UniProtKB/TrEMBL annotation:
<dbReference type="InterPro" id="IPR041414">
    <property type="entry name" value="Raco-like_middle"/>
</dbReference>
<feature type="domain" description="2Fe-2S ferredoxin-type">
    <location>
        <begin position="220"/>
        <end position="313"/>
    </location>
</feature>
<dbReference type="InterPro" id="IPR042259">
    <property type="entry name" value="Raco-like_middle_sf"/>
</dbReference>
<dbReference type="InterPro" id="IPR012675">
    <property type="entry name" value="Beta-grasp_dom_sf"/>
</dbReference>
<dbReference type="Pfam" id="PF17651">
    <property type="entry name" value="Raco_middle"/>
</dbReference>
<protein>
    <submittedName>
        <fullName>Xylene monooxygenase electron transfer component</fullName>
    </submittedName>
</protein>
<dbReference type="InterPro" id="IPR036010">
    <property type="entry name" value="2Fe-2S_ferredoxin-like_sf"/>
</dbReference>
<dbReference type="InterPro" id="IPR037010">
    <property type="entry name" value="VitB12-dep_Met_synth_activ_sf"/>
</dbReference>
<dbReference type="InterPro" id="IPR043129">
    <property type="entry name" value="ATPase_NBD"/>
</dbReference>
<keyword id="KW-0560">Oxidoreductase</keyword>
<dbReference type="GO" id="GO:0008705">
    <property type="term" value="F:methionine synthase activity"/>
</dbReference>
<dbReference type="GO" id="GO:0051536">
    <property type="term" value="F:iron-sulfur cluster binding"/>
</dbReference>
<keyword id="KW-0503">Monooxygenase</keyword>
<dbReference type="InterPro" id="IPR027980">
    <property type="entry name" value="RACo_C"/>
</dbReference>
<dbReference type="InterPro" id="IPR001041">
    <property type="entry name" value="2Fe-2S_ferredoxin-type"/>
</dbReference>
<dbReference type="InterPro" id="IPR052911">
    <property type="entry name" value="Corrinoid_activation_enz"/>
</dbReference>
<dbReference type="Pfam" id="PF00111">
    <property type="entry name" value="Fer2"/>
</dbReference>
């Protein structure tokens, strides 16, 4: 390449560059499966030498001030710029015009694309010159501006004037601000004092030309700082930081499934930039936004950035893997064969190793269901699966289970060959996600499951891993919303052989219930929502250390108890019930659920976090709990009515689930979630789904007993039940 200087303008000629065939085909959107692909290739080969013969490449570079018009137009603070003009001359443009005039559109388009490709290559070839010129001026390149994507078309006239294109190369400009010859390009490179920066290339990530055929977006890199450690993950175009974190196995509890509602996916931007979205504005104060707080599910980075993770540590989530069965005290076992019983909950997963001979639990393992990254409740998981994340969800649950099984094997020293069966109790959605079934029909009327029958398959087939060589059984369900976990729970509570009528209420992420005995069982599920697990509550959180789980009010003064006696950081489900009950008792909330006007705007203060923030219970939180408790109570009342029994005729009320295990039943009566008539009948059973899976493994006649229970069960669909609606409205009030 020859470089000459004419005053302040650097002129470049004699470019030794070649047309890039790949780019030409890309510009024509001509892929190998295109029916005319071969024809285009042939034409390209034929045209090559002719086009080279007609290309007359020249370039101009000028270092000068950023013109005021442009600085003003796009709010630019930098003052200096380099103007770069490249052209392939008049002849090649005239040649393509001729082809179009003759009706040979393919040739015309090919010539245009070849000229464009040559222009791109010229630009690349200029990089070394520009680096050197910038270095001489102790400057770097901050950004590239090109019409019409970065600056308006009329700015081409300003650039044309500035670089003296007419005088230097005879290049004109039309009234539509197009260069003449048309195969000419001009850009402005904005200079910076930072010599290390050299952003001359096209930055497709920031470019508005979404349909540009050459669009190629390399993933940005995100440096993540957490607990003093740092690691880097790539984030692709249109991928949120939350999705990038999940894709790299960084577990994040995304309660709302990335809808920008729950606020649990908080990150702090330390370097780089992230737009403030309307969801951010709703979740963070002005100061927090200034400090860089953003919702990772709404954050789509356009450049490399550095973030700090601010996630609730759920590694110590209190997981109820207890059930009122036999547990080996010593953990030692003389058993020679074992089973593994598993409860896959929407929030947590519990695994127990059971001795076949001793019928005792030898080892327990529990973990958070990492699918929480896709949303806290079943609806968000169904949605995520339907949005194309079915495989990721299946991989996530398989991974959690395999981790647990490996830990059991490692800690107990048993051989994988000694495991004779794995039994899983889970709700219908969890079962579908494990099996890799489509969830399309689970979320829409009439909510038809793909399969809820008992599944018995080789472990490897379901788990995609040969870790164990045994049978895996997934316990049967009754419907989409009354799944295998409830059947397992009923089995654990002896519904199949009980003469007396019992009620089982499972207060997990969904509120399922069953009423009956060995002759008749009615089941249903209520859309209680996640409030009992801290979901949708302003300061709600899972049962982790520091979550408020007990509240006592003395007028407006609150005394709190937290999990692990750690400083308070939020409210778990039990804490939510406690504070609601206490607010009612102290009459800060009236019977309609209205919070005292003193606290109406900012919420009732319960405790302060270690960094001085007020943990409050708001009017919206009271409404959430009203809806949840009314749903449970309405469900119980409807089942009793449909069954034709009174409170007195119910012998035992089993409360299952993590929440049910910890609840102070007095408080549940106080807010009217359960009728006071049940006061002496409550029996908390913990993880009854796990208990049922264990029982199934050790029972001689599990298949028959379970089948009988499923056959006996009839589902009451509460959403279309008139009485349920009446009960629901009635129990929305506090007593
Ligand atoms: S999308 Fe990329 S290649 Fe296309 S014009 Fe924009 S920056 Fe250039
Ligand atoms: S707000 Fe981001 S996951 Fe809920």
């Amino acid at each position: 390449m020859q470089i000459t200087r004419k005053g302040e303008i650097i002129c470049l000629d004699g470019f030794d560059v070649r047309i890039d065939k790949k780019v030409v085909l890309q510009l024509l959107d001509c892929k190998e499966d295109n029916p005319i692909y071969e024809e285009v290739e042939e034409e390209y080969e034929e045209l090559q030498e002719i086009v080279y013969g007609k290309i007359d490449p020249h370039a101009l570079i000028k270092f000068d001030e950023v013109p005021k018009e442009i600085a003003k137009q796009i709010n630019l603070r930098e003052k200096q710029a380099a103007y770069v003009l490249t052209t392939v001359g008049r002849e090649v443009s005239a040649y393509s015009t001729l082809m179009f005039q003759q009706g040979d559109y393919l040739k015309g388009m090919l010539i245009d694309a070849m000229a464009d490709s040559f222009l791109f290559q010229m630009e690349d070839a200029l990089q070394d010159v520009l680096r050197e010129e910038c270095a001489n001026r102790k400057a770097g390149i901050k950004k590239r501006l090109e019409a019409p994507h970065d600056i308006p078309m009329e700015m081409q006239q300003v650039m044309h004037r500035q670089i003296r294109a007419e005088e230097m190369l005879g290049i004109g400009i039309t009234s539509g601000y197009m260069f003449d010859p048309v195969k000419t390009s001009c850009l402005i490179l904005v200079l910076t004092d930072d010599e290390k920066e050299f952003r001359m290339q096209h930055d497709c990530r920031k470019c508005s030309a979404l349909h540009c055929k050459l669009r190629k977006v390399a993933p940005v890199m995100i440096e993540v700082i957490e607990n003093g450690k740092s690691y880097r993950i790539p984030c692709a175009e249109k991928q949120s930081i939350l999705d990038a974190l999940i894709a790299h196995d960084v577990y994040f509890s995304a309660v709302c499934g990335g809808k920008g509602i729950c606020g649990k996916c908080k990150i702090q931007l330390l370097e780089g930039s992230l737009d403030v979205t309307p969801s951010d504005e709703k979740k963070f104060t002005k100061e927090e936004l200034e400090k860089g707080y953003r919702l990772s599910c709404r954050a789509f980075p356009k450049e490399d950035c550095k973030i700090a993770l601010d996630r609730n540590d759920e590694s110590d989530f209190e997981i109820v893997s207890d059930y009122s069965g036999k547990q080996s005290d010593s953990g030692a076992s003389n058993d020679t064969a074992f089973g593994i019983a598993i409860d896959i909950g929407t929030t947590t997963i519990a695994l127990n190793l059971i001795g076949k001979q001793s019928k005792e639990v030898v080892y327990s393992f529990s973990t958070i269901n990492k699918q929480r990254s896709f949303g806290a409740d079943v609806i968000s998981r169904i949605q995520a699966s339907n949005d194309g994340k079915k495989k990721e969800l299946q991989a996530s649950i398989r991974q959690d289970l395999l981790t647990g099984i490996r830990e059991i094997i490692k800690e107990t020293g048993i051989s994988p060959k000694q495991v004779e069966q794995v039994v899983i109790g889970c709700n219908t959605t969890m079962g579908h996600l494990l099996m890799g079934y489509s969830c399309e029909t689970l979320g829409v009327v009439p909510f038809t499951p793909v399969n809820i029958k008992m599944i018995k398959e080789p472990f490897e087939k379901i788990m995609g891993s040969g870790l164990l060589d045994c049978e895996l059984a997934v316990l049967p369900g009754i419907s989409t919303y009354v799944g295998g976990d409830i059947v397992s729970g009923m089995y654990f509570c002896d519904f199949f052989k009980s003469e007396d009528i019992c009620l089982l209420v499972d207060l997990g992420t969904n509120g399922e219930m069953a009423l009956g005995n060995k002759d008749k069982i009615l089941v249903s599920s209520t859309a209680a929502g996640p409030a009992f697990e801290g979901g949708n509550i302003t300061w709600g959180m899972g049962s982790v250390k520091g979550a408020v789980c007990g509240v006592r009010l003395d007028k407006e003064k609150a005394e709190v108890e937290t999990i692990g006696n750690e400083p308070p950081i939020g409210l778990c489900g039990t804490g939510v019930i406690e504070i609601a009950a206490e607010l009612v008792r102290e009459e800060f909330v009236d019977e309609t659920g209205l919070l005292d006007e003193d606290y109406f705007d900012d919420g009732f203060p319960i405790a302060k976090t270690p960094d001085g923030k007020n943990i409050v219970f708001t009017q919206k939180d009271v409404r959430e709990i009203q809806l949840a408790k009314a749903a449970v109570r309405g469900g119980v009342e409807t089942l009793l009515l449909r069954y034709g029994v009174t409170y007195d005729q119910v012998k035992t009320v089993y409360l299952a689930g993590g929440f049910g295990f910890h609840i102070d039943t007095k408080k549940a009566f106080q807010i009217g979630m359960l009728p006071r008539e049940f006061a002496n009948k409550i029996q908390t059973v913990g993880n009854s789904s796990l208990g049922g899976a264990i029982r199934y493994f050790i029972s001689e006649d599990g298949d028959r007993e379970m089948e009988r229970m499923v056959d006996l069960s009839k589902e009451i669909n509460l959403s279309s039940d008139k009485e349920f609606n009446d009960f629901y409205m009635e129990h929305m009030f506090f007593e």
